[in-house]
Amino acid sequence: MKVIIIGGVAGGMSAATRLRRLNEEAEIIIFEKGPFVSFANCGLPYYVSGEIGERSQLLVQTPESLQARFNLDVRPHHEVLSIDSHAKMVTVKHEDQTFTETYDHLILSPGAKPFVPPIEGIAEAKNAFSLRNVPDLDNIMTVLDGEQPKEAVVIGAGFIGLEMAENLQMRGIKVTIVEKAPHVLPPLDEEMAAFVKKELEANNVRVITSQSAVAFKDEGRTIVLEDGSELTSGLTILSVGVTPENRLAQSAKIELGLRGGILVDENYETSQKDIYAVGDAIVVKNQITGEDALISLASPANRQGRQVADVISGLKRKNKGSIGTAIVRTFNMTAASTGLSERAVRLAGLPYQVVHTSGKDHAGYYPGATDITLKLIFNPETGTIYGAQGVGQKGVDKRIDILATAIKGNLTVEDLPELEFTYAPPFGSAKDPVNMLGYVALNLMEGLSESIQWHEVKEAVASGKVILDVRNPSEIKQGQFKDSIQIPLNDLRCRIHELDHHQEYIISCHSGLRSYVAERLLKQAGFKAKNLDGAFSLYNTVLPEEIEHV
To answer: How does pLDDT run across 200-209, given as a tens digit for each residue?
Structure first.
């Protein structure tokens, strides 16, 4: 059996090494257009700041090491020009020579290429770069080390954009982020992304949202925004998204789908027999909605590479799709998500409800505990979990990984309180934040609690509802809701006569726990009340201008 793999890194090299472990006699050839077939592309931003100290650490494997361990024929600087699916042959260019190579099975792993927007003057911008591979990194480092720019602009506030902003700032460069969307980190919902923006600004990164670059001037040193304002930039990072690399697939008349992604079946086979595709270039099924999706992440690409090797080797593996679990660090803040965002659920027309909880990464009385804010999006009728998001300094990865596993395992909201975790004070809480998400969601599903979301408060107050704040006086000094009533929770029973049975109340505390206790108390006393989901801490983060300070 002769297998040709076009493209290395996550998908291609996972396929190659798995194939060898299953087929010692197979001939396996990997053609890579660039100089490196196996490198840590997710680690590239961290070399910019020196957090990863040696460039060699980014080079995971070399052709020589892969030949020695796996007997793989790895050929960098070999560009596949075309595929003849009928003759089962590829045409390859290396240096000044062109040759052909036949195959029994062909695996496409071309990845995705950075989307470069058609901005006026971008072709003449000598200091504007995307970051996809090691040569891109080398170009960026040449500018950083040579010209030593004082100011940098990152266009696009997705995962790579935020990582680059952080690492450029760590070099002492003044960084500005420009994002077309209304908030940074578009995969997250607005209120969760607000925590990330706050962290960026606390670390002297300027954040401009709802704006895009419309022109480059002075060979890229000046960037013009939509509103006519201008930014000075010694280095510009273009991080506005990626698009599937589909040139070879088109040449082979392979069927394409969503935004030019390569269509594959449950065995990763394309519309052309014996041609398979994996990685960022393929269209996958979102496991939650069943809809087509493009998910450019390393973990699914590695899994797909292994699975296609299994399929070619005769093992039964199915392409089950992905849910898009991702994480990013921004200075001292971690933000992560899995599954569908609230916006995606709403656009899909699914019935849903949302809960936010605040907790600690480990027992609050044990030194070093830090805050975690979690968001759960679920079906209030069935308890199906659509997605989750989390922000905090520590422990966010653990909780989102658990919730991603719950989604993959078809667990429901009702199962979350039943999950058993290791517990000791340095590591967690007896009631883990994930358990708490389940408790809060179940209270809503079973009618024990009613909630109101942060974005609904203004209209609710305008319609006559009153905010009852049950925080302590010392907390009120940190900020208060406009026109609110303040009664500490511990005083509520003896001061309940101060409230009006004909009035509807929105109850808030700092995180939502004490306000839930107050809600239960008032409802059993005949009052109409709803709990402000996420409470003061969330509202103050998203809408600080609505908070009064006395």
So the answer is: 999 999 999 9
Task: Tell me if 384 sits within 8 A of 357, measured CB to CB.
Answer: no
The active-site residue out of 22, 27, 40, 42 is: 42
Q: What span, in angstroms and rounded, lies between the C-alpha atoms of 431 and 287?
A: 29
Q: Encoding tokens for residue 282?
A: 């393929």
Could you tell me where the DSSP H helices lie in 101-259? 134-146, 159-170, 190-202, 247-251
Q: What tokens were used for 279?
A: 């990685």
Residue 157: both structure tokens together: 């506030």
- Tens digit of pLDDT for each residue in 324-380? 999 999 999 999 999 999 999 999 999 999 999 999 999 999 999 999 999 999 999
- Whether residue 293 contacts residue 284, with contact meaning beta carbons closer than 8 Å, is answered with yes
Mean pLDDT over all residues of the chain? 96
Q: Is 509 a catalytic residue?
A: no
Give the pTM.
Answer: 0.95
Q: What is the DSSP string of 342-410?
A: HHHHHHTT---EEEEEEEESS-TTSTT--EEEEEEEE-TTT-BEEEEEEEESSSHHHHHHHHHHHHHTT
